[in-house]
Amino acid sequence: MSKQDYTEERGGLADAVRVVVRTLVYLVLGGLALTAIATVASVLGPTIALDLYTPPVAAWWTVFTAVVVQGVPFLLLGTVVSAAIGAFVPERVFSRLLPRNQALAVPVAGAAGAILPGCECASVPVAGSLMRRGVAPAAALAFLLSAPAINPVVLVATSIAFPGQPLMVAARLVASLATAVVMGWLWARFGREKWLRLPKARTTGSGTSRRGAFAAGLQHDFLHAGGFLVLGSAAAATFNIAVPRSVLDVFTGSAWLSVPLLALLAVVLCVCSEADAFVAASLSGFVPTARLAFMVVGPMVDLKLIALQTGTFGRAFAVRFSSATWVVALVSSVLVGWWLL
Question: What does pTM read for this prediction?
């Protein structure tokens, strides 16, 4: 072994040791912080709870924590994939896998969304990482929409929620994939660069190893996207306690009103794509097409996703893209529902 190889090997080992030590330090400090918070909460909690605890506050807290708990594991999955793409996957890989023609790259990227078993929280950081690696925004956005909607976990959950109704599973697959591909094509044709704040590549020192770049990318993406996840979850919880359920019952008798109503409800409820089929199945008073719209719109447009898109790609993009996606998803649900259901 040459002296240079020996030096490089020692340098790589030193980087790995530093990453491990830094992780252990974070865990120790985090554990001490959580212990301190738990101690203070155990002392002050009962007094504060007596003053603030009311049924609406309890309902708000229940919905808020449910949305956050559902989203955080998949957000972590997405940030891990995003950091891994940025640190370990060469840019030439994407140029080889995707066609150069955007019109062809969009459906390929949309179909590739079936590979990632995650929800919308995971798809945003991954799409941002793909753009940083040189993937055309239209293709990355098609992947962003399809990944949480057509992956195997979601389709299996839908089949369990609607036993004996394979057409509902097929309708969800077709309508969701069609929406993702159409939105990718629309962005390729009408999208403007000034609307999209492209994620900037994270700069690391020349001596930073791939493991160090992975750790830095994971920390940056998770902390950045986590704040917007909390913001969107709080908005969803507020809607749940502000709108009486009796108001929703007025719309169940009309097919024309029930479809856009459930499409709007999917935006504000922020149910994770792995669980929304069970919520849709419980809405037995609504027509099948309305429940399909709930499952197609939810993974593509909801409050926490809009907040995540705003933080990652900018407000100008999030407003335009979310509005157009909602319309396309609604139309796709109606057409596919009329055809299959």
Answer: 0.71
